[in-house]
């Protein structure tokens, strides 16, 4: 679906643009304001961290006065209604059908006010959130706030995978509609996480409090035995692996290695037996090899190995390789990847794909670590 509107005889329309973070808003505004009359202007919004960038631009022949601001990640939070929020207000099982609501928290109220004020002055809204399901969900949070202030907004989505000028210019000329299904998938995941996490956290904390006679009201440690639908099973794997390591009994073994050196290089031979746990047996075989140092090659097997074109890395594979080769934690890996993305060196890192975009310049693709 293409960005509509056509030509309007040179009369500019006002367009509100919203990015997921201030640095992206600044970068995209810099690209789009290049060679534009009036240049780039900056003013403060209600939030001192989320500036508003203004410039002129033309989208598919339509002159536009662009106002570009940002949020800082999710604009809204999901929580139970007040009557279910106190721990002893209901049985933990009741949280599975208790009513929930999505709202803008107090620390994001300044951002909400900026969006409302800017939306009232604009005819169109372009969403520049990150191109994943989480970004799509944040886009619909922005839509909800903006349409409460202006129900006549014409809403569009910019899709881009890298913060480079070519990608941004192409994206603004090929706008699409936001994807409600992607946003709904995140809403569902958030609700499942909330209901399971809250109910199990309350249940096991109160159960263990009674079992071990812990007074949560007077204990200065304020003990809460939290449960996360993703984190808790992962912790189980870690504990299981720990128990395996603790129960492992180290046992000595011996192996025989053979290397043949020539002017062309060295050939290393592997013993099919692998290793001996009996030193005497290993010593006997070794002595036999020493007494008969000449070997006869009875068979040569050739095996063809193919080297395939490099594929883009999924988030999980990126974290695994960074940990293996550079000993980087997952959090540090994604922080570095995010910084590289925001400076235009790599495409958006939080994706689960192994396909390059048709627009990717493969001459600049870096071969991944093997």
From TrEMBL:
Catalysed reactions, as listed in the record: ATP-independent breakage of single-stranded DNA, followed by passage and rejoining
Record-linked InterPro entries: Topo_IA, Topo_IA_2, Topo_IA_AS, Topo_IA_cen, Topo_IA_cen_sub1, Topo_IA_cen_sub2, Topo_IA_cen_sub3, Topo_IA_core_domain
Every Toprim domain range: 14-161
Nucleus found in the keyword field: no
Topo IA-type catalytic domain: residues covered: 179-370
Record-level Gene Ontology MF annotations: DNA binding; DNA topoisomerase type I (single strand cut, ATP-independent) activity
Isomerase found in the keyword field: yes
Cross-referenced SUPFAM superfamilies: Prokaryotic type I DNA topoisomerase
Domain of life: Eukaryota
EC annotation from Swiss-Prot or TrEMBL: 5.6.2.1
Single biological process term from Gene Ontology: DNA repair
One CC-aspect GO term: RecQ family helicase-topoisomerase III complex
Name of a matching Pfam family: Topoisom_bac
Protein family according to the UniProt entry: Belongs to the type IA topoisomerase family.
Function summary: Introduces a single-strand break via transesterification at a target site in duplex DNA. Releases the supercoiling and torsional tension of DNA introduced during the DNA replication and transcription by transiently cleaving and rejoining one strand of the DNA duplex. The scissile phosphodiester is attacked by the catalytic tyrosine of the enzyme, resulting in the formation of a DNA-(5'-phosphotyrosyl)-enzyme intermediate and the expulsion of a 3'-OH DNA strand.
Name recorded for this polypeptide: DNA topoisomerase
